[in-house]
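Researcher: Next entry in the queue.
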Amino acid sequence: MSRWRYLKFGVVGASGTLVNLLVLYLAQEFFLASIEPATQRLYASLACAIGLATVNILSGTDAGPGRTANRSGAGRWPVNLRVTRWPHGWVPACNTS
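Model: Structure for this entry, 97 residues:
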């Protein structure tokens, strides 16, 4: 049982790294290419990449939203994450429950 736990840890970590790099590249080159100066584009791209990689990692582990060690409901995240359409594009949004 312990061996599979470490394997899952490695797979989830590696997928987080890949998601981070992929989102960073796509945001820099395509989605946020209109942002000038380049340093501001880099900061925005990094924020997107880190945010999506974090959501990816939390969804692949037992530490994610709504998951607890004892399954009693204590320690659940009171935040509902989603993406919302605004006049200037799609933005991440959250509401507390």
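Model: The first strand starts at residue 79 and ends at 86.
Researcher: Noted, moving on.
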